[in-house]
Design goal:
The complex is a heterodimer of chains A (266) and B (195).
Chain A (H helix, E strand, L loop, with lengths): L1 H15 L1 H13 L1 H7 L1 H9 L5 H24 L5 H8 L1 H15 L1 H12 L4 H28 L9 H27 L8 H29 L1 H10 L1 H29 L1
Chain B lengths: L3 E10 L2 E11 L3 E5 L6 H9 L6 E6 L4 E3 L11 H12 L3 H10 L15 H13 L6 E4 L7 H13 L4 E4 L11 E7 L2 E4 L1
Parallel strand pairs in B: 3-7, 3-8, 5-6, 6-7
Antiparallel strand pairs in B: 1-2, 1-4, 8-9
Helix pairs in contact in B: 3-4
The chains are: A mainly alpha (266), B alpha/beta (195).
């Protein structure tokens, strides 16, 4: 039952964010070479270096970062609004197992990179134990998160509404700028080639992708602020226009910043 | 007899103490739950259905109850057929009774729609059909008449009058006319008592 609910939420997300999904797919394709070369590195460092080594901690940070990213993306798409229904019909244990399974699937790319790193080590046995330990930690973390989702059913009070609103505005921008970071890394390829055509195509692709991301992020924020717009309309309809203008300025800022950086690099 | 037993149960929502060390034994029967807005009526039903855990104390409900409440939200893009098949798989519902309820609530035209396309009243009918045909023992109804037209409200009254299932119902609209015999549970000041 949880999987059916999850599937419907994933479908709803992909139908309303087709552009974002296409952009993410293109991004993933474009960074394939980087992923294949550098991807196994964090896992390899984790398996072979000691705890005292800075390389160990750098690798750990990368893995934690990637796992956290997949965790946040999953929680953003598969929302807790149907938790009560799933628990009511199929039980808490079913919900917990379904949630952990869904999160593990989303963490599959990270776990795959760890597995690739494992393949490069010499002491396979030790690395395998280490990897199983990492997977076990993931499962424990997801079980705890499932418990938190269940507990939130009885704690619907929003203690920090202003912080919540700021997070709703900032979170998509945070993901957005992460994409910019990846775009900048890709733009650095310009330094390794003298081909004008390649550089032009690359810069054009990055510009298109970041512009699409900015527009998508604007739509996400606009959707998230719909509730606040309705509330503002109740107070004074003019305030809704003010909010819309603020959102447009925010979009313009997001668009011009990366274009400026691209122009400087160019 | 399937009872509901609360033993020194406290329930806290955020900073609000809803129930404070309540001890109560409810024998099978039909109850109307009353109390002011915000007293914790809906919370109490969610507690009995297992959606909320008590902060302290122990709760014993012999069998899983069926619940109709706003907190139960079905995915908008799920078809009614899928919803029914999920219930069949996990609840082993009485499909004959469900078909009778679909006819009684004039819900047949909605069977091919998705949940999100249903009006509020039809969504309420869906929840009622699922709960009334469920295999749980107790029936917990939180404002069951919300959004129902007069014909459907009369149908629901008739069904509740005929059913032998023990139930607890919250009804501010006072459309419930046929509970027999009607006993009142009152919630207020972090406590519940039979009136």
């Amino acid at each position: 039952m949880y999987r059916t609910c999850e599937k419907h939420q994933l479908r709803a997300f992909s139908e309303s964010n087709r552009t974002l999904i296409k952009v993410a797919a293109v991004f993933t394709l474009m960074i394939q070479p980087v992923l294949l070369i550098l991807g196994p590195l964090p896992g390899y460092l984790l398996y072979t270096f000691n705890i005292g080594n800075p390389g160990f901690w750098l690798a750990a940070l990368i893995i934690i970062g990637l796992s956290s990213l997949s965790f946040i993306i999953y929680n953003t798409i598969v929302k807790p609004r149907h938790t009560a229904w799933v628990i009511h019909v199929a039980g808490y244990r079913h919900f917990c197992i379904g949630y952990c399974r869904g999160q593990l699937l989303f963490a599959a790319p990270t776990l795959l990179l760890l597995a690739l790193g494992l393949a490069k080590t010499e002491s396979l046995g030790k690395a395998l134990v280490f990897m199983l330990l990492i997977i076990a930690v993931h499962v424990l973390a997801y079980s705890y998160a499932a418990t938190r989702r269940f507990e939130k059913l009885s704690r619907p009070v929003n203690r920090h509404p202003r912080l919540h609103m700021m997070l709703q505005i900032v979170s998509p921008a945070g993901m957005h700028y992460l994409a910019y970071l990846i775009a900048l890394a890709m733009l650095s390829l310009i330094w390794f080639t003298e081909s004008t055509l390649f550089n032009t195509v690359l810069a054009g692709s990055i510009t298109f992708l970041t512009t699409t991301l900015a527009v998508t992020q604007f739509k996400i924020v606009k959707h998230q602020l719909t509730g606040y717009r309705s509330f503002l309309w109740l107070i004074e309809p003019g305030l809704v226009r003010t909010l819309s203008r603020a959102l447009i300025l925010w979009l313009l800022f997001l668009l011009t910043l990366p274009l400026g950086i691209i122009a400087v690099l160019w | 007899m399937t009872n509901i037993e609360l033993n020194n149960v406290s329930v806290k929502l955020g900073d609000n103490l809803i129930l404070d060390s309540v001890t109560l034994a409810l024998p099978e029967g039909q109850y109307q739950l009353t109390g002011k807005n915000g007293a914790g009526k809906s919370t109490f039903l969610q507690l009995l259905s297992g959606l909320i855990m008590p902060s302290s104390g122990s709760l014993n409900v012999d069998d899983r109850p069926d619940l109709v409440a706003d907190s139960i939200q079905i995915p908008d893009n799920m078809t009614i057929t899928t919803v029914f098949s999920l219930y069949d798989k996990y609840q082993r519902c009485d499909t004959t009774q469900r078909n009778q309820l679909v006819d009684a609530f004039q819900f047949s035209d909605c069977l091919t729609a998705t949940v999100g396309k249903l009006s509020q009243g039809n969504q309420q009918k869906l929840k009622l059909i699922l709960a009334l045909s469920g295999n749980g023992h107790w029936l917990l109804l939180d404002e069951p008449f919300n959004g129902l037209d007069s014909t459907s409200a009369a149908t629901l009254n008739h069904i509740l009058a005929e059913t032998n299932r023990p139930l607890i119902v919250i009804d501010h609209s006072e459309q419930l006319t046929n509970l027999r015999p009607r006993r009142k549970l009152h919630i207020g000041d972090q406590s519940i008592a039979l009136v």
